[in-house]
Write a sequence for this structure.
């Protein structure tokens, strides 16, 4: 067992001891203690040696955690841009970039603020106080101060404070039938659906609840050494990077590569080919300032913010449906969930034992109602023993039963006889009747007509066992025993009663819906195999289930196990596993994740917490323990599992919205980099960084409205198809780059707008500017070749020899370029954000209605952009060392731009001539809108061509032609691929139609995988896990 690494080391010289198997005397000897307990000094010494009986608390600096969200490739690029901006004294751009950095970090910090919640919940679940024998007297101490060797007293209502071994009672013979057992509820730890009886020599685990009895026990493991602590250790090791973070990292990496390529090209061309120079101070290096356009514009700056806010708003919607999301990125992972592992007890079922009325087996002429009545009569409800309470509550007329009858005497269960006897008095007649209940085989053997009924009763008992039912036998006999014949009482069989833990009311429907949605459901339970199989049959799940014995054999490589070559194949193809411990659940989930499945886990107990934490989507059901809720990503607030389906549908809708944004942002990255990279290197023309930042603020901010967009959830689990997103992004980006370049070229290199349409000119070719300036100077009675210092005395040095013509051409190129920037900004903004309407659907963007908020956000963002384009920034950023009140900077049509009051222009031959200032383009905003709308009509055909070439959504392989399929498809997987990352041969691909081997057995019966033996009063099969299952739980290393 040491090789497993599952025993806990607590000393230097160690040996493994299984405290369940050794005797009481051996345990006391090994732990160096006695029935009188430890002394205070011994306890203090052991506390130093073993440490406190609590889980270690990990603390993290809030500041370092916050700063950590700024330590990733996307943030590095933004931080580099901020450094460049402040170095160039570009305060506005610096402030905006830093603000976006802080917003992204703040949202991420808030999202993960409860990262340590699961560990803290487990810590709080430890019993805070304990009664212990110290220095020969009973003391109440903090449970954290317990040490191995302490003698503790536990009683009804206590939470077991550590792993303990139960000591024998004083004067006890050591036989189970001579002592009163402890009733120990350990469902939250092991998944068992009823309290377990614990006798002397048995062990009980930390975190269990005592339902009945009082005993002295010796502590053998504390803190992280306990079974409970090992669950916490698994929980702590389950941290993993969110899938959405991986997706954002890959998208960011592609964007950074694109940015890096263009930065190198731009700097090489600008400094090497055009010979630009840099000077210190504000506005001294327009080339580097222009480089920020590529850096800032190419980074999906708002991607973390938009996706986080989209997830948060989606989580808020899910909360109203009864699913509270504690980790927002789990919403995205839920959309891709293709396997759902589920605990049974308390999750699929009610964790409430119930009589199956339909399968009751009346005997001796009795009716089912009479069987239920005698079952209720046999119950002693004062002690609240679980079996008694179940039988009593199952009788329809239980409210009036004890008005008609009285319980005069009760003989409790003992392991030797395996039955109870209730003496019941009829209040009207005074007649006394005895009612026996117990293990069905035992009750049948006591019946007077055993020979006549034993065969059919044995068949029914076997049927119960094979179906996982827990059977009870009910018999009656008249009198109080004083008049019994010498051969004993004449017991008459009343009937057999099957007990089971019923499924929740909506579990079967939920599982069927999961299958329809491409999600395979696996049962992982701590209960017995046969019980798990019967529950699976009732719920329509596969019954190809195995115990941990098969799991461990496969893990250790014993060749073919149950027909599977590896543990991975076994786990992937099985319908479920029974008799599992927390580490098994953890391993199953981990293995499925390694097989590229997006794995969900539902549960309610401490034993589920590690798997809940490890799973891509951990779901705690209503009424779950604090530990389960703390480890889960989603907590259901309403009884039942139907909220899971609602959450999956909601998650898939959110996923569609996120992929819409991902396609948009990747397209914008390529569009910005290629548009302004090409225009810069080809035409030596610069664009202001502030417009790019505002573009991200307005357009990406408006993308938050996608959280309310109208979408169709996919029929199958979603996966990010990043190859498709990147290729489509390149296609859209290059198309939009072409549209922007065409507008730039037409406005600045042709006379279309000024000659054909009759608008003022934005052309800046040297021959056009020379001709216009010559005519303008002539009209102003100025000599083109005269020194410009005469027009600008004190602003232009006469020694520089700058002529009026040179200065006029510089001013005209500057003012026309500044208005062109406003024009190009608006066209880029409109056409860019309009891509959202194209990528969100397969159909034509005009025929597929988006959400109202999406339209409102679009027009609000473009209204803001239109106003910026119309009015500009009054020439911000002003050229360094320029002239004030420029004289040659009028519009080509005459007069000055009404939205440019500063009228500061650059001086010929300086770097200030390349300053990317912005002046309002006035009525050119109409041209920008018309241009964007015209080019938008080409986006939908481009989309269909790319989908056809890539065969997205079966556009090409489905047959029928491209345009036929356009109207057939609904865009349920836009930006996603249900096959990516999934083993296509696994059962999750055909989960709705597969039939397990056990379902195909003769008669639909489930073959018995093992033999059940007695142990619980009146129950045919054992309630607790087998000895092999519990062996490792009580194994500890000592010295």
């Amino acid at each position: 067992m040491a090789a497993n690494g599952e025993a806990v080391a607590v000393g230097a010289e160690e040996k493994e001891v299984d405290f369940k198997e050794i005797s009481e005397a051996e345990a006391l000897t090994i732990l160096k203690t006695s029935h009188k307990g430890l002394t205070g000094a011994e306890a203090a010494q052991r506390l130093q040696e073993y440490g406190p009986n609590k889980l270690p608390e990990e603390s993290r600096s809030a500041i370092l955690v916050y700063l950590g969200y700024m330590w990733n490739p996307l943030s590095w690029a933004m931080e580099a841009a901020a450094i460049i901006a402040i170095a160039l004294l570009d305060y506005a751009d610096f402030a905006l970039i830093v603000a976006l950095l802080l917003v992204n970090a703040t949202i991420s910090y808030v999202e993960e603020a409860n990262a340590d919640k699961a560990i803290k919940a487990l810590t709080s679940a430890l019993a805070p106080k304990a009664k212990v024998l110290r220095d020969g007297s009973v003391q109440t101490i903090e449970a954290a101060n317990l040490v191995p060797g302490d003698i503790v007293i536990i009683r009804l209502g206590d939470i077991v404070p550590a792993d303990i071994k139960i000591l024998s009672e004083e004067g006890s013979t050591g036989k189970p039938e001579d002592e009163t057992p402890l009733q120990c509820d350990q469902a939250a730890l092991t998944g068992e659906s009823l309290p377990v009886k614990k006798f002397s020599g048995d062990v009980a685990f930390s975190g269990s609840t005592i339902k009945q009895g009082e005993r002295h026990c010796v502590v053998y493991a504390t803190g992280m050494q306990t079974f409970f602590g090992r669950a916490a250790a698994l929980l702590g090791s389950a941290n993993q990077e969110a899938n959405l973070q991986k997706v954002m990292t890959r998208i960011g990496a592609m964007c950074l590569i694109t940015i890096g390529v263009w930065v190198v090209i731009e700097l090489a061309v600008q400094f090497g080919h055009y010979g630009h120079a840099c000077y210190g101070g504000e506005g001294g290096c327009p080339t580097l300032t222009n480089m920020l356009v590529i850096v800032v514009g190419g980074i999906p700056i708002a991607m973390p913010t938009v996706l986080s806010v989209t997830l948060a708003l989606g989580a808020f919607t899910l909360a109203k449906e009864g699913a509270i999301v504690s980790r927002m990125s789990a919403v995205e992972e839920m959309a891709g969930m293709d396997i759902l592992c589920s605990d049974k007890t308390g999750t699929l079922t009610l964790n409430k034992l119930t009589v199956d009325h339909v399968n009751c087996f009346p005997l001796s002429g009795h009716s089912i109602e009479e069987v239920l009545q005698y079952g209720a009569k046999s119950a002693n409800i004062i002690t609240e023993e679980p079996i008694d309470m179940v039988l009593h509550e199952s009788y329809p007329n239980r409210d009036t039963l004890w008005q008609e009858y009285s319980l005069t005497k009760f003989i409790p269960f003992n392991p030797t006889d395996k039955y109870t006897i209730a003496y019941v008095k009829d209040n009207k007649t005074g007649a006394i009747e005895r009612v026996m209940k117990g293990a069905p085989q035992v009750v049948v053997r006591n019946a007077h007509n055993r020979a006549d009924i034993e065969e059919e009763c044995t068949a029914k008992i076997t049927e119960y066992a094979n179906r996982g039912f827990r059977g009870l036998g009910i018999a009656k006999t008249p009198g109080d025993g004083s008049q019994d014949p010498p051969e004993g009482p004449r017991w008459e069989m009343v009937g057999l009663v099957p007990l089971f833990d019923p499924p929740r009311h909506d579990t079967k429907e939920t599982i069927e819906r999961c299958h329809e949605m491409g999600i395979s459901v696996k049962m992982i339970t701590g209960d017995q195999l046969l019980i798990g199989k019967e529950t699976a049959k009732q719920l329509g799940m596969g019954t190809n289930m195995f115990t941990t014995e098969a799991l461990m054999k496969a893990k250790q490589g014993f060749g073919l196990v149950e027909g599977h070559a590896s543990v991975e194949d076994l786990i992937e193809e099985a319908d479920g596993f029974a008799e599992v411990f927390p580490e098994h659940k953890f391993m199953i989930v981990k293995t499925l994740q390694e097989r590229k499945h997006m794995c969900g886990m539902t549960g309610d107990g401490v034993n589920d917490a590690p798997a809940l934490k490890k799973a891509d989507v951990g779901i705690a059901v209503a009424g779950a323990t604090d530990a389960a809720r703390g480890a889960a990503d989603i907590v259901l607030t309403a009884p039942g599992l139907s909220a899971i389906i609602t959450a999956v549908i909601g998650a898939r809708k959110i996923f569609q919205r996120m992929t819409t944004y991902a396609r948009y942002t990747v397209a914008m990255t390529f569009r910005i980099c290629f548009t302004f990279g090409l225009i810069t290197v080809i035409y030596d023309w610069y664009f202001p960084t502030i417009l790019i930042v505002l573009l991200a603020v307005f357009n990406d901010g408006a993308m938050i409205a996608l959280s309310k967009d109208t979408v169709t959830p996919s029929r199958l689990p979603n996966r990010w198809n990043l190859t498709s997103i990147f290729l489509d992004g390149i296609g859209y980006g290059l198309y939009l780059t072409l549209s922007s370049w065409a507008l730039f070229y037409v406005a600045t290199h042709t006379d279309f707008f000024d000659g054909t349409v009759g608008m003022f000119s934005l052309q800046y070719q040297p021959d056009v500017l020379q001709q216009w300036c010559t005519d303008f100077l002539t009209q102003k009675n100025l000599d083109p070749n005269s020194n410009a210092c005469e027009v600008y005395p004190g602003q232009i040095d006469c020694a520089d020899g700058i002529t009026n013509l040179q200065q006029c051409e510089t001013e005209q190129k500057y003012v026309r370029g500044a208005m062109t920037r406003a024009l190009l900004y608006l066209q880029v903004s409109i056409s860019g954000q309009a891509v959202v309407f194209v990528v969100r659907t397969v159909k034509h963007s005009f025929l597929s209605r988006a959400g109202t908020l999406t339209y409102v956000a679009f027009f609000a963002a473009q209204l803001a952009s239109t106003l910026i384009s119309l009015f500009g920034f009054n020439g911000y950023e002003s050229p360094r060392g320029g002239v004030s009140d420029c004289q040659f900077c009028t519009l080509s049509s005459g007069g000055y731009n009404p939205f440019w009051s500063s009228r500061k222009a650059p001086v010929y031959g300086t770097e200030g001539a390349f300053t990317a200032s912005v002046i309002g383009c006035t009525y050119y905003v109409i041209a920008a809108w018309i241009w964007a709308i015209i080019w938008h009509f080409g986006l939908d055909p481009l989309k269909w061509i790319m989908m056809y070439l890539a065969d997205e959504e079966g556009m090409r392989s489905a047959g029928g032609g491209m345009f036929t399929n356009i109207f057939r498809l609904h865009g349920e997987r836009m930006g996603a691929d249900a096959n990516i990352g999934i083993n296509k041969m696994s059962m999750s691909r055909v989960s709705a139609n597969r039939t397990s081997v056990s379902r195909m057995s003769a008669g639909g019966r489930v073959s018995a995988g093992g033999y059940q033996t007695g142990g619980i009063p009146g129950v045919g099969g054992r309630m607790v896990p087998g000895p092999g299952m519990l062996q490792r739980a009580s194994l500890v290393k000592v010295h």
